[in-house]
Amino acid sequence: MRRFRSGQRLLSASIVFLAVAGCSDIPLTDNPPNSAVPISRDSKFALLQQSCSTCVWAVHNPLYQAPDLSNSAAMESTIIVRATTSATGFQAITLEVTTSQIVECPAFAPDLAPIAFPCGQNAMLVSIDCLGDKTGANIECEYDLEIDNQTLVSYRAIATAVDATTMSSPLITYSYGEPGNGKAKPIWWHTGEADSLGYLDRIRIGYFPDPEYDPNNPLSGNKTYSAFADHVNEIVGRAFFNDDENFAAEYTANRHFFDLWAAPFGGKAPDICVNAYIYNINAKPARQLVSAGVIVHERYYADCSHIEFPPGDGTVYSGSSENGWLMVHESGHFLAGLSDEYDRNKHLSCSQPNNVHESEFDCHGVASLALVNAPTGACTQFPTSKMWRIDEKVDGIGLLEIMDKEIGQKKESSFQKSSRRALDILFGNCQYGNCYPVVNTCAGPTPPS
């Protein structure tokens, strides 16, 4: 392991940085060290070696933090690089890190002023040699830096194996600190869009603090935006950077289709599930920036997300030890239009294909699809609601569906059959430039979970 704190080579300075395109976007399945998600480094190497002949990935840790505004101390961040190859070793491994000062973005159209995402100026690009005198097929290094809440950081790693194969990780931009009103801070933002197939579309998720985190709210109980940021770091780490638990497998393997953002105060979940989510003037620009809004709350109430396609809004209870699972389950509703697969559910899905059906005939139709490939005998009717789903468990034994919620077995669940196929189609659409090319008629809100 190599750590770099000083003496890096400065490549350029005083340039205006908005976004850089052109690096290849390689889907990898690894996650950073995270206090909420312990990882086994050895097991991650094994996964990487199975997935590609030469791979390189980079990720920052923590994913997001926002100390209280009264704390002016610099925030520590670490960018972790790992490269692996089936060749005998590497010619070079380089980490490129650009830091810039956040400034107001120019308005590209009257209805986009003020624009929510950040721009940067006075950029400084540093190139770090991650290989050094290291030899072998598995190389790791870490780069430590200190930033304040007005710093924008972009990075990517480039690895060249001895057989001349060159791969790069996606260009990722992030920032720490509480965003100002009308703004958003990137947690995991792909700013190099081009890949070998053209341009990718991405699903943009914004995390909004429930009013309970606002210290000006008499019900906050001394909570702050900083506490919200810590919870978001935990939720995002468990849902998108976690291949130790089944429930996160789909999002971890496909996180290159997601951009994740932290939003300011001003969002509120409906008091009654059928009502609309509320975003005031402070939060509305950030909500317009993202595809889906997630209200994060620590005070317990049953999560309720709208079944929507294209995406809509949902909630995640941060106080749960299963908040990562909740994020994945609830987003099945508001990102993919999936419905709950348990008995009290009376709502149809609007996913492609549907995962909950009004009739056995409709269920058989989906089960017979080539890419679902389930026996029609797996179509099962809910005893109470009389809706239908595909369930291949025999006597309660078998693969667990994440849109079900079997008590005590949530972490072992994953997307199965029709729900997995719906996500495959969604990510395939993103790959070819439009995550949501079709607008489906949806069933409406889900009952509280």
What average pLDDT do the residues reach? 82
Shape: globular
Reported by name, the CATH topology of the largest domain is Collagenase (Catalytic Domain)
CATH class of the largest domain: Alpha Beta
How far apart are the first and last residues' alpha carbons, in Å?
Answer: 44 Å
Q: How does the helix and strand content classify structurally?
A: alpha+beta
* Number of distinct beta strands: 23
Q: Main β-sheet, in a few words?
A: 11 strands, mixed
CATH architectural designation of the largest domain: 3-Layer(aba) Sandwich
The figure for the number of domains is 2
Low-confidence stretches: 1-50, 194-198
Q: So how many helices?
A: 7
Task: Note the run of SSEs as H and E.
Answer: EEHEEEEEEEEEEEEHHEEEHEEEHHEEHE
Taking all Cα atoms into account, the compactness measure Rg is 22 Å
Strand content: 25-35%
SSE order and pairing:
Layout: E1 2-4, E2 9-17, H1 41-51, E3 54-61, E4 75-85, E5 90-103, E6 119-129, E7 138-147, E8 151-161, E9 166-168, E10 172-174, E11 185-190, E12 194-195, E13 198-199, E14 203-209, H2 225-240, H3 249-253, E15 258-262, E16 267-268, E17 278-279, H4 284-289, E18 292-297, E19 306-307, E20 313-317, H5 323-334, H6 360-367, E21 379-381, E22 388-390, H7 417-431, E23 444-445
Helix pairs in contact: 2-5
